[in-house]
Amino acid sequence: MKRQLFGKANRPVMRSDNGPQFISHRFAETCEQFEMIHERIPPKTPNKNAHIESFHAILESECYQRHEFESYQHAYEIVVGFIYNYNHERMHSSIYDMSPYEYIDAIKLGITKPKEIKV
């Protein structure tokens, strides 16, 4: 990511829980370096980060639990393949049974309207 892509008003926001990897000084420095806004959800409120919690549950059940990794490289290849499939081929009932990339293309072509996300 390049800092020059974002103006001060529309910096990317990363929402996370309060896990140890997100409260470290190194992580805070990295957010500053990339001019990102780090937004923490309140403790014991995974519903405030439901989309990513759902993704991690799917990643766990459909990827991690189905493979026995032999090395970091093997795990990396399997996970990257899963994420590609998740974004390009897997149908998502929440977006009209399309893959995320099909959904974005359908919006760009005016075939469908974006779904509203309730916050």
From TrEMBL:
InterPro entries: Integrase_cat-core, RNaseH-like_sf, RNaseH_sf
Biological process annotations from GO: DNA integration
Domain of life of the organism encoding this protein: Bacteria
Pfam families: rve_3 (PF13683)
Occurrences of domain Integrase catalytic (ranges): 1-108
PROSITE patterns attached to this UniProt entry: INTEGRASE
Signal peptide boundaries: none
Gene Ontology MF: a single term: nucleic acid binding
PANTHER family, sorted: INTEGRASE CORE DOMAIN PROTEIN, LOW CALCIUM RESPONSE LOCUS PROTEIN T
Name of protein: Putative transposase
Organism of derivation: Paenibacillus cellulosilyticus
